[in-house]
Amino acid sequence: MTPAALLHGLLQVLTALLLPPLLPGLINKVKAAVAGRQGPPVTQLYRDLAKLARKEAVLSATTTPIFLLGPVAAVAVGLVASLLVPFGHAPAPVHFEGDMILFAYLFGLARFAMVLAALDTGSSFEGMGAAREVTFAALAEPALFLGFAALARSSGSLSLSGMLGGSGLALSRATGPLVLVLAGWVIVFLAENARIPVDDPDTHLELTMIHEVMLLDHSGRPLALAQYAASLKLLVLGALILGLVLPRTHLAALDWLLFYGGLAALCAAVGVVESTTARFRLDKVSQLLVAGLLASAFAFFLLQAQP
Amino acid sequence: MLPVGLMLGAMGCWVASGCLGLRGADDRPHQALGLLGAALGLAGSLWVLLGGASGTLTFPFWGGTARLEVDALSAAFLAPLHLVAALAVLYGHRYLPLTAPKGAGRWVRLSVGCLAASLTLVFTARQGLVFLVGWEAMALSAMCLIASEHEHPEVLRATWVYLVCTHAGTLILTAMVVLLAQRLGGYGWLPAAGAPAPGPDLAILLLAILGFGFKAGLVPFHFWLPAAHAGAPSHVSALLSAVMLKAGIYGILRVSTLVPPVAHLGGGLMALGALTALYGAGCALAQRDYKRLLAYSSIENLGIIAMGVGLGLAGRALGLPWLAALGFGGAVFHVWNHAVFKSLLFLGAGAVLQATGTRDLEALGGLAQRMPETALALLPGVLAVSALPPFNGFLSEWFLYRGFFTSILGGGAWPAGLAMTALALTGGLAAIAFAKFYGFIFLGLPRSAEAEHAREAPRGMVLPMAVLAGLCLALSLGGALLLPVLDRVVAVLAPGNPALLAAGLTLDLGLCAALAVLLLGLGALAWRWQGRIPAAAARPGTWDCGYARPTVHMEYTAGSFADSWSALVPGVKLKIRRIRELFPRPTTFHSAFQDEVGEGYAAGLVLAAAARMQRFRRLQQGHLSVYLLYILVALVGIFLWATVRPRLLP
Q1: Is B431 in contact with A112 (Cβ distance < 8 A)?
Q2: Cα B249 to the chain's mean position, in Å?
Q3: Does the distance separating the beta carbons of A122 and B365 come in below 8 Å?
Q4: Taking CA atoms, what residue in A is nearest to B564?
Q5: Rounded to whole angstroms, how far apart are CA atoms B433 and B186?
Q6: Contact at 8 Å (CB) between A198 and A280?
Q7: A127/B560 CB distance under 8 A
Q8: Residue B219 burial (10 A CB sphere; 0-12, 13-18, 19+)
Q9: Which of A77, A98, A122 sits opposite B508 (nearest CB)?
Q10: Which of A200, B236, B545, B594 could be disulfide-bonded to B232 (CB atoms 3.0-4.6 Å)?
Q11: Do B542 and A297 touch (CB under 8 A)?
Q12: First to last CA, chain B
């Protein structure tokens, strides 16, 4: 391992550990700015986490250790998955052929654990959220995989670092299909991170939520872990999308700057979407996800037609 | 010679163990002999799997010679058989005591011994007729097991349906064995020499897929399976689901080694597998009876295995050794993994059934507090069956995905792309089904008095589950060590293939295992950071968004949990009254499930056929004189034929 690769890996691990809570702060700041409010500071989630870490957790008498396993699994999964996806364009710290399958199923594990944690409370609200989570996830997974298949075909590589480590969307010979993959994955990104138009992260006590409602009974450190894990997922899946679009330079430092700039732009875009769009009706959400699935599928089919 | 001798010893021990179970006054000799048989069987199969020489035994049989052989492919199926059978015998001691009413305990002990012995024969036989004898013995002992609670009418019906289906399969297999004997020039099963004969080869393979497909539960031949597996005692369901279904897969694989590869057959089997997997997963999530849910999940997993076999056959036919290795390797690995996690789940389901007496998901809940050891042991099982890392189910699906992606790069993009999408969707649906299974059995508040007063299962039942749960993790972390073993199996299936898996995947699986360890380590760190769990007595109730007095009836139900997808499953009927008036009257909601292929379509066909067959009833008069007339007519016919034949056919 060369010193440069070591440094790169170190930077990636530090980014994954420290940066995530900034992203929801950025999104909220953009939303506040669009609405003409001042909004909370961008570091609000860091402060929330610090406060929650000092608080005592209140557990329901119904719950078992499964309830605590949910956030733990979500954080562990997010950290391990962050090692597989390239930040910037250098290869990820861990890469091997077939790592994208592990990447996708790791998030499946986190989701399963959070769903079990929600069911463990016996609350009908959390049961409802859990039901929606698994329902939509089953549609998001094929969209993700068809995108992988299209990328494997266009890059000739079977690892995330090889698929996303290319020269980016603008310079690729397969621009058209990759735009479709991007469209499909943006939908997956919004659904998986429970953002508008799939889910509204702001409505805490309304019935049409998915992710937030599953956290109703978490408090103290478990809640801190769950919120940190959610922001980590935003970062990791964001890096997946950015890998498709960011151009590549020959300077590692410039690549990293581009990556951070891209993340900020992604957060701003999510903020603008959230400020200008309403959440979809629940039955429309599956249509949106099917649209994402079809976009990825068309990308795959188009790439088959190419020699 | 050594492995075959061990297998013969194992068969003897199993039969003797069954007989002791039927007659003995004590359960211990039965158990000891069964465990001895399992130990012999495991020793023989591990010997071959770990690189020992495969053994052959030839003996005269019915005017010819018959052969028994244990090669790596046989051993790959024999090992899970003897492991699961041993655990089932241990588990059965407490689950179904010897003194169970109406002799069910004794009868099941005899049949389990016979089933293990006959399956051992099926996996070792290399002669068509011996194979059929073993196959029939297996089918009949399985029938006795399925019928063991025959006082319930639905069990009796399931037994009948099973009996008809298995014999329909055997009929097709008999035709296949005869065709194979013509093709190979004898009933001995040695790979065909000489030029390929595409016509007969295709016919043989199609008949094999059809006949073995009945046993493996491939759609549309699966309909006997859910009722049969759900109605049997749970450790028997484990044995049937984890091992006996695989006999169908074994048969397809074995026959495919005997004849040269046929183009496009692999793609067809892959499509059939994808259909089976999707159908099984869809039906599984719509079930209300958790044992039926597990049975449908077996159909799903057999579909996944069939996809792997199809991929392997396609790779073999196209001359792509890497694809063949990934397909066959993934299929065999999934056979092992499914044997481990599905028997774990069935044993757990049995513990729940014994503790609560109900198979209704809507009547359970909260068992994790009442049966903590069972709940803990089953957690790896549900994660593994949903193909989630770091457990073993993920690893074998990873093989298949890897194969599909390789195929996509290599040009076979259409079938591989579709199969990959189907596998991804199946994974999502299985996750719904098993979140429902675990969440509504073990979590939340108990929904009935039976669940409220459930007690932990006895140690003798928890221990086998703990062994299997440990195997779920061990098979995943040690995946890289299994690669040389899988290579040996692939070498039987695709002769001439170099050992590609160990060379190509050791590093990848090692990294997977390292990441799994890292995942567990990070989880342990986060768990420690979360701090201590306060005692249950000091806790408030669940905060129901400010509602002060939540009751059990307000809990989310298993039916609602899977509602959005189960509406798409063919066969689910929902009866709900739309509310139109301003002051609605009390209303009801009713949902029912009927297997559209099995109970809807196939049952209609069978009934129509039975009505046609009624015409032949006229032949059956019941008068002795009429039967004597039949015999006379037949004799005269044969006589005439014998005299006329030399003139007609010079």
Answers
A1: yes
A2: 9
A3: yes
A4: A135
A5: 47
A6: yes
A7: yes
A8: buried
A9: A98
A10: B236
A11: no
A12: 49
Phi and psi, residue B289, nearest 5°: -90, 120
Instruction: Give me the residue from A60, A111, A115 closest to B541, CB to CB.
Output: A60
Separation of first and last alpha carbons in chain A: 36
Convert the pLDDT of each residue in B229-280 to its tens digit: 998 999 999 999 999 999 999 999 999 999 998 888 999 999 999 999 999 9
Nearest to A27 by CA among A307, A284, A267: A267
Q: Domain coordinates of chain A in residue numbers?
A: 3-305
Per-residue pLDDT reduced to its tens digit, B590-626: 888 888 887 777 777 877 888 888 888 888 878 889 9
Option in A66, A71, A123 nearest B544 (CB): A123
CA torsion angle for B593, B597, B599, B605 (degrees, to 10)? 160
Angle at A197 between CA A195 and CA A203, to 5 degrees: 60
From residue B188, give the alpha-carbon distance in Å to each of A83, B133, B211, B541: 54, 14, 19, 69
Is the distance from CB of B232 to CB of B154 less than 8 angstroms? no
Beta-carbon separation of B428 and A77 below 8 A: no
Structural contact between residues B71 and B54, judged by C-beta atoms closer than 8 angstroms:
yes
Q: Which helix (H) or strand (E) holds B592?
A: strand B589-593
CB contact under 8 A, B387 and A153: no
CA–centroid distance for A57 within its chain: 26
**B302 closest CA partner among B281, B327, B329, B324:** B281
Chain A, 90 to 109: residues with Cβ < 8 Å from chain B are 94, 96-99, 101-102, 104-106, 108-109
Name every chain A residue with its beta carbon within 8 A of the beta carbon of B560: 127-128, 131
Structure tokens at A241: 């999308």
Structure tokens at B623: 């008068």
Nearest-Cα residue of chain B relative to residue A282: B564
- The model carries a pTM of 0.94
User: A-contacting residues of B 378-397, CB under 8 Å?
Assistant: 379, 383, 386-389, 394, 397
Backbone φ and ψ of A2, nearest 5°: -75, 160
User: Residue B634: what are its φ and ψ, rounded to 5°?
Assistant: -65, -45
Write out the H or E segment, with its range, that includes residue A275.
Answer: helix A252-276
CA dist., res. B259 & res. B612, Å (int): 38
Q: Is B523 close to A123, i.e. CB distance below 8 A?
A: no
ipTM of this predicted complex?
Answer: 0.95
